[in-house]
Amino acid sequence: MTVHARYSDLIRTIPSEGIQMRNAPVVVAPDEEALAFEIADWSIRLTDGLHACLASLSMVKISWHLAPGSALARALEADAWIRSNYLDQGYSFGFLDELFSGDMAYFDIGSMILQNRAPDAGYKSALKSCEIDGQPVDVSAFYPFEYHWGLVALVREDASGALSDRVWLLQQEQDPWIVDMNLTLAQYVELAYRARGFHHWQLAYLNRNDPTFARMKFALPKMFPTASFGESIFESSP
């Protein structure tokens, strides 16, 4: 099954008992001619890996959350793990609706370029305050692929000036930081699919001790019982 077909199937399977979309999902079919036009029109070069990834999947917008009052929501609210880790600690169940939700919002190449060229693009102020190997970041070299709950997945120009498919993650809220995820964009898209875009799945991937990892292990099998996540959704990563 192609990447586009898998994501198209995802928008048919996510709305289920207890899970609903926040807004109408979008999965745009890849268009080789449109991609070639954008590359030529913007006079930009892509590495083979990035070209292959963008040729397999274009723009995606999928956002889901717990259906209020559903049997699933009631079961989670009554769960001992939820009570011990969140409700008994003073968190409201409404707050958990944000934590136990998911988003995937991938840009096509034209949108990536427009964001990169826009002086006031949202990620740039955070990126300016970051360092890589002790050196200031060249903001113009980074192109955003996805904005995700305070995180931004970026790709970067390589030494030859071509846009690479290596993914960097920017945490753009308080005390911003940036890190190389050691993933290609194709791998990133695959892991996001496995995680169903779960809120902050990237942090769980980078650090199994991050609280997001425990939330994912607990919640994903309950929210998507027909999917197979195993002990970790990141086992046998591409």
Characteristics:
238 residues; alpha+beta; four-stranded antiparallel sheet; 11 helices; 40% helix; globular
Describe the structure.
- Helix content is 40%, strand content 22%.
- The protein has 238 residues and is of the alpha+beta class.
- It is globular.
- The two termini are 16 Å apart.
- The mean pLDDT is 92.
Structural class, by secondary structure, is: alpha+beta
Low-confidence stretches: none
Strand content: 15-25%
The topology string of helices and strands comes to HEEHHEHHHEHHEEEEEEHHH
The value of Rg in angstroms is 18 Å
Approximately how much helix is present in the residues? Answer: 25-40%
Average of per-residue pLDDT values: 92
Biggest pleated sheet: 4 strands, antiparallel
Supply the number of helical segments: 11
Shape: globular
What is the number of E strands? 10
N-to-C span: 16 Å
Helix/strand layout:
Layout: H1 3-13, E1 19-21, E2 26-27, H2 32-41, H3 48-56, E3 60-66, H4 71-78, H5 80-85, H6 93-99, E4 102-106, H7 109-117, H8 124-128, E5 131-132, E6 135-136, E7 142-148, E8 151-157, E9 163-171, E10 177-184, H9 185-195, H10 201-206, H11 211-223
Antiparallel strand pairs: 1-3, 2-3, 3-4, 5-6, 7-8, 8-9, 9-10
